[in-house]
């Protein structure tokens, strides 16, 4: 009883109109909704060359550390994990696009965490957020969503390379592609029915069906599904190449990591806190600065253990809807992620075509931000268009964001509407111009 009172006082559970039971159930709900990250993030990091078993361990470890930081520092019911979109930027833009080794990319992630920390402490982070217009803030997640969905379609074999048209329709009669299509339909139906854990069910359902038809090797015993011989972090822990990241340049990678994470995390945080009723009287969450500090420290930790930048997850809304209002919800999520380490062998059984449907569905969900764009104003609509199409068509999140910021600044200046630009927009646009110029050499 005394421990319960201590928990209540520390997390302000009663003060926020919740209970310990409600907080724990909310954490369980968030975990079930968010658990697909354990399957999807390692699959994307493996494309960058990171050993999959270590990627599983790093994903879970980074999630546990960052989520506990959010719980203890900010006391928010929000789970923090390696971000969808941020992992795509890490793998497909930084490693495969720029040709860097994954250890160098981890170094860039660490430096971006240091930069987040400095920007938060000095209040510059708030200036940047205030400077960027709502249309571009909305365009970034929409473009990332299309990029992620495109990767999912490619991994599923639904979209393939074509010499005549660049892309074309894949062989839909191929068993892996048929199974991926089944996974997309199953996941979409479950999402439409608001079934908790829809993406996990879709991933596991597709994998099991693949085993039944003989496309996926079936487990031979319980040790193939769960094991107390936990996956090792040794291949990735402390392997970040700080010198390589620094030599490659601040503008090319670290700056873009910062911009992507900044707006992804800010938009998600504000939306979740609004849903939880924690915005405060003036619409500014009282603990927002602590949440940003948690995020920046979590990012440095994620680079150290071997995964991409962490961010607040919109899936936390499921736990908030169940009544979660404090950090105890987040602590519950972290504990469940620790327990999930036992099931690491199961993650290794899941093939790429089974995680592809989750990428497609997540990409579709990220399109919802497009409603915040004013398409009646062409000076807003055109930069949004370049941002959104630039990411999938150039296979680079950084390029899409750069095209959006530069075009927005130029079009406002040359149409005589330069007064609508915050002074920080000029700085950001110039930095992206430098970024593009450096790529020419």
Gist of the model:
The protein has 441 residues and is mainly alpha-helical.
Overview of this structure, please?
This protein is mainly α. It has one domain. The chain is built from 20 helices and 4 strands. It has a two-stranded antiparallel ribbon with strand order 1-4. The model has no long low-confidence stretch (mean pLDDT 86).
What's the helix count?
20
Beginning-to-end CA distance, first to last residue: 66 Å
β content, as a range?
Answer: under 5%
Order of helices and strands: HHHHEHHHHEEHHHHHEHHHHHHH
Shape: globular
Mind sketching the topology for me?
Elements: H1 2-11, H2 20-34, H3 37-47, H4 52-74, E1 80-82, H5 86-95, H6 102-121, H7 124-131, H8 134-156, E2 159-162, E3 166-169, H9 175-192, H10 198-212, H11 242-248, H12 250-276, H13 288-305, E4 310-312, H14 316-321, H15 327-340, H16 344-349, H17 352-365, H18 378-394, H19 397-414, H20 423-439
Antiparallel strand pairs: 1-4, 2-3
Helix pairs in contact: 2-15, 3-4, 3-5, 4-13, 4-15, 5-6, 5-12, 6-11, 6-12, 6-13, 8-17, 8-18, 8-19, 9-10, 9-17, 10-17, 11-12, 18-19, 19-20
Structure characteristics:
mainly alpha, two-stranded antiparallel ribbon, 441 residues, two-stranded antiparallel sheet
């Amino acid at each position: 009883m005394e421990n319960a009172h201590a928990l209540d006082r520390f997390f302000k559970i009663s003060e926020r109109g919740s209970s310990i039971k409600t907080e724990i159930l909310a954490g369980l709900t968030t975990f079930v909704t968010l658990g697909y990250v354990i399957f999807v993030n390692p699959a994307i990091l493996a494309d960058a060359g990171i050993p999959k078993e270590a990627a599983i361990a790093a994903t879970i470890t980074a999630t546990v550390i960052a989520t506990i930081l959010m719980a203890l520092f900010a006391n928010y019911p929000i789970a923090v994990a390696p971000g969808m979109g941020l992992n795509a930027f890490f793998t497909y833009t930084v490693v495969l696009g720029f040709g860097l080794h994954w250890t160098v990319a981890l170094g860039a992630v660490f430096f971006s965490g240091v930069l987040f920390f400095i920007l938060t402490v000095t209040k510059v982070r708030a200036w940047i957020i205030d400077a960027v217009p709502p249309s571009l803030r909305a365009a970034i997640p929409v473009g990332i969503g299309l990029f992620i969905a495109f990767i999912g379609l490619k991994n599923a074999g639904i979209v393939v390379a074509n010499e005549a048209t660049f892309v074309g329709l894949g062989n839909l009669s191929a068993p892996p592609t048929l199974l991926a299509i089944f996974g997309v339909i199953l996941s979409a139906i479950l999402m439409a029915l608001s079934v908790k854990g829809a993406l996990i069910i879709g991933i596991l359902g597709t994998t099991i069906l693949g085993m039944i038809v003989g496309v996926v090797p079936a487990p031979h015993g319980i040790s193939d599904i769960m094991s107390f011989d936990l996956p090792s972090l040794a291949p990735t822990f402390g392997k970040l190449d700080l010198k390589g990241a620094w030599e490659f340049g601040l503008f090319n990678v670290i700056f873009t990591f910062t911009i992507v994470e900044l707006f992804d995390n800010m938009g998600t945080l504000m939306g979740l806190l609004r849903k939880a009723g924690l915005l405060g009287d003036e619409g500014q969450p009282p603990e927002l600065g602590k949440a940003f500090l948690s995020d920046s420290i979590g990012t440095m930790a994620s680079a150290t253990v071997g995964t991409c930048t962490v961010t607040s997850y919109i899936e936390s809304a499921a736990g908030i809807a169940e009544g979660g209002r404090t950090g105890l919800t987040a602590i519950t999520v972290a504990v469940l992620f620790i327990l999930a380490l036992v099931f690491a062998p199961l993650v290794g059984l899941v093939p790429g075509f089974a995680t592809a449907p989750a990428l497609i569905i997540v990409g579709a969900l990220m399109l919802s931000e497009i409603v915040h764009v004013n398409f009646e104003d062409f000076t807003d609509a055109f930069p949004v268009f370049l941002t959104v199409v630039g990411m999938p068509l150039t296979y680079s999140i950084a390029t899409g964001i750069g095209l959006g910021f530069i075009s927005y600044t130029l079009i406002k200046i040359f149409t005589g509407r330069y007064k609508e630009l915050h002074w920080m927009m000029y700085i950001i646009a110039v930095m992206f111009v430098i970024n593009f110029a450096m790529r020419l050499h």
